[in-house]
Amino acid sequence: SDSMNLSAFEDTIAHDRRIEPRDWMPGAYRATLVRQIAQHAHSEIIGMQPEGEWITRAPSLRRKAILFAKVQDEAGHGLYLYSAAETLGADRTDLTERLIDGRQKYSSIFNYPTRNFADVGVIGWFVDGAAICNQVPLCRTSYGPYGRAMVRVCKEESFHQRQGYELLLTMMRGTDAQRAMVQDAVDRWWWPSLMMFGPPDDDSPNSARSLAWRIKRHTNDELRQRFVDMTVPQAEKLGVTLPDRDLKWNEERGHHDFSAPDWDELKRVVSGDGPCNAERIARRRAAHEEGAWVRRAAAAHAAKRTARLRE
Ligand code: FAQ
């Protein structure tokens, strides 16, 4: 019965065990997971664009090979996450259509332009750094396939973050012009990176329920604080300034105090009105339409194979 199912589900959550695809789960739990995992998958796929634009313009063969590998990893993460969403009954084509129709979201961060190669470094350092803060706890999320996907994804994100930071260290050892490029990229990406963690806790409609279900393990503000505390010493070592005059260590709290990002900007970017939203979706739509013949060919091939096996 439903009440027995519900108590088994709640017991599993309470004991920090995992919900698996064939287990009974409340409809709203399933819907929340599909929403978050699809948004996460879309972010990985759209997130290939800002850095992908620099593959042909990388300054050396070594940098090109590294960037190529990173962008391919992001494609892999996206596919992995779409598979996790499929274990909940979602359909991948449907999810892609929801993305390109604007019915499903992807991370606000990928609606900002990459102006020069320092941006590639800062994306690795900040954006992958933020992704790690957010996703390491998701390795313990209550839904099995999502948590297991996060283990591998986080290992690759760590490599991505290191390549970004190492790239910036190299530029900082270069010319004054290169150092200025790094500082400029830091100034542009800092606030959007803080926004990746989502709205502040008192304006986060999904948090309470997702925390109760142990889908999320920490609040948006907790993870944002963790990111700031992790990044400040890295900025000092690199020799750049984070663009917040109120950013300072608070001895009493044992954390850094910092200013709030412009939450109206986050709302605008999430609702489709960021600097690159239209461009990112147009590109994704074109890739989907140009790939239609590949999907048709693959389906025809699979149908022929099945027919042959039946003979
Ligand atoms: N952008 O109630 P909450 C990466 C939406 S990392 C856009 O707090 P929730 C790696 C939210 O969906 C980036 N939308 O929501 C990479 C909700 O809308 P809805 C992806 C945002 O779910 C690196 C509404 O606002 N990572 O891709 C944003 O409890 C480099 C209210 O918010 C993940 O997706 C935002 N920043 O918490 C790739 C991690 N913030 O659906 C390439 C998994 C909030 O109700 C290159 N996701 N919204 O209409 C999560 O941890 C959570 O979903 C949060 C939001 C924390 C993002």
Task: Give the structure's gist in a few sentences.
The chain is mainly alpha-helical and 311 residues long. The relative contact order is 0.11.
Question: What this model shows, in words?
Answer:
It is a single chain. By secondary structure, this protein is mostly helical. Strands 1-2 form a two-stranded antiparallel ribbon. Helix 4 packs antiparallel against helix 7. Phenylacetyl coenzyme A binds next to helix 2, helix 6 and helix 9.
Brief descriptors of the model:
single chain, 311 residues, mainly alpha, globular, binds Phenylacetyl coenzyme A
Number of helices: 13
Strand content: under 5%
Note the gap between the termini. Answer: 43 Å
Q: Provide the low-confidence segments as ranges.
A: none
Taken in chain order, the helices and strands follow as HHHHHHHHHHEEHHH
Q: Nearest-angstrom radius of gyration? A: 21 Å
User: Numbering strands along the chain, what is their spatial order in the largest sheet?
Assistant: 1-2
Unique bound compounds: Phenylacetyl coenzyme A
Structural class: mainly alpha
Specify the helix fraction band. Answer: 55-70%
For the largest beta-sheet, the strand count, sense and barrel status come to: 2 strands, antiparallel
Shape: globular
